[in-house]
Structure formats: C-alpha cells, structure tokens
Write a structure and sequence with these properties.
Structural class: alpha+beta
Helix content: 25-40%
Distance between the termini: 26 Å
Largest sheet: 6 strands, mixed
Shape: globular
Number of strands: 10
Length: 271
C-alpha cells in the first residue's frame, strides 16, 4: 500500500502526531502497525501518556512478535503453500485491488480513515484459556450470527463499549480482511466510517468480508465487501475463493489457536 501522509498508523492520536514521516510505498498494514508501535516506544519519541515498550503496544493489540514460532511458520511455510496451491490451478486466485463502490468517487475517502480498533484474528480471543471472544463486558461470549432464510450469516453487532471509552453506540458489522502477507485482520465497521479498505489502507487483498461469532468462536465468514469485488475474472471465481478462504481460516486456526478458534460447523458464504 502507499503510506499516505494523512494516515499515520493505527494507534490513535498520539501515533498520528508522532509519525511525521515522508510518504513511502509498499508497507503492509501489519508492518505499519509495527512501525507505529516502534515510534511510540522509541526513546526519542516517547508517548505522552505512557512510557511502555514496543512489546507492550503490540501485546495490547493482540500481536505476536515476529520471531514467535507460529508467526514464522505461518509466513514462511503454511500460508505460502496454500497460496501456491490455489494459484497454480486452472482457476487461479489473485490479489483483489480496492475499488470505490458506487457513490464513492476515487480516491475513496475510506482508504484514508485510520482504523484503530482492528487487530489480528487470534488477538480477538481475550479468553485464550478457552479460546473465546468475549463481548466488551468481559463476561459474555460474543455472538453475532443470524439466520437469513435457511442459512446463517454474520449479522450486525451492537457493541457494549464502556462510556469512558468515548465511543458512540451503534449497530456495526465486524469486518475481516486477508492482506497480501496472510494476516487475518478483524475489526468493527466503526459506525459506517471504517470499511475494509480502511483496515487495509487501500492496499490489495486476497479476500475480505464479514465475520460472525457464535458463543465466542468463529462460526461464519462471508465474502461481502463493497471495496473488494472481483467482477472481471473467470466464471466460478467466487467458488474457488470460498475454498481458498476456508483453507486459510482452518490452517490459521491450527497454527495460532490450537484448533479451538473455529466453531465445529464453521463455513464460508460466497456472497
């Protein structure tokens, strides 16, 4: 992606103030997260609110260190193998560029909206002893799956944010993206302002959509995204993308979540 001058990282106002950098190209969202955290923890650019280290900032947002065995296995072996398998077939997958949906003229404003609430999928599991995603009340497992017709789909989620957080109340979808480096990043729509391209900062992705949890485990994933639509490829590309996304999520669950993060009936909806 292009690291734009008016999108200074993912860690709130202090990061935007500290990241006084020139425009750079080809920085993946997760790399930008690391870069923001490094600056926040740097001796020459201490945060006004805390003097915590880089490890603190990344842990707070659910990131594992790059040297972690799971991270290395995923980025060096597991994810590349899955990509090659689906790129070498008769109906190959490809990165999907961001395209403004109808009513949003390029350049799309959502590409420039900083997403501050997203984190890696495994970082959403606060109760890691049971691998459950809890509501912001810290007690009840998150569930946002509804029945639409005869099938279940990810539904809108009404967050119960503490008043002290300063966040508005409202019904939002929980979004997910699979970035070019294999990171599954998840975050709320943030009341219509933050979209898939906000989490990805306008970069091309392998897939994007909405995610549904049932009793705190990933139950359903769809491919519904206004910014990341593939309409110019071969017939049946969506079926292949469904297979690819299902393979990625199941492998991710095995590597990062001890096969405990997905519901036993996990499925991918191609819409």
């Amino acid at each position: 992606m292009a690291f734009r001058a008016n999108q200074f990282g993912r860690f709130g106002l202090q990061a935007r103030t500290l990241l006084q950098l020139e425009t750079q190209d080809m920085i993946a969202p997760s790399d930008l997260d690391f870069h923001s955290a490094r600056l926040l923890a740097h001796d020459n650019h201490p945060s006004e609110e805390t003097q915590q280290t880089l490890v603190y900032w990344l842990n707070e947002r659910g990131y594992l260190p790059r040297e972690h065995p799971s991270v290395r296995a995923w980025q060096e072996t597991v994810f590349p193998i899955i990509c090659r398998e689906f790129q070498d077939g008769e109906r190959p997958i490809a990165l999907i560029p961001s395209a403004p949906p109808p009513g949003c003229l390029p350049p799309c404003l959502h590409d420039f909206v900083p997403s501050t609430l997203h984190r890696p999928l495994d970082g959403w599991f606060d109760d890691r002893s049971l691998w459950r995603v809890l509501n912001p009340d810290g007690e009840t497992p998150l569930s946002n799956v509804d029945s639409a017709g005869k099938k279940e789909v990810p539904a809108k989620w009404v967050p119960m944010w503490p008043i002290s957080s300063g966040l508005q109340m409202g019904a939002v979808y929980i979004l997910w993206v699979l970035d070019r480096n294999g990171h599954i990043l998840v975050g709320p729509e943030e009341w219509g302002c933050v979209k898939h391209s906000s989490i990805a900062a306008g970069d091309s992705l392998w897939a994007a959509g909405e995610i549904g949890f049932l009793d705190g485990k990933v139950r359903a994933v769809n491919l519904s995204s206004g910014h990341y639509m593939r309409t110019d490829l071969y017939t049946g590309w969506r079926d292949v993308l469904v297979e690819f996304v299902a393979a990625v999520f199941r492998a991710y669950d095995r590597i990062f979540m001890d096969t405990q993060g997905l519901d036993s009936s996990f499925f991918v909806v191609g819409q």
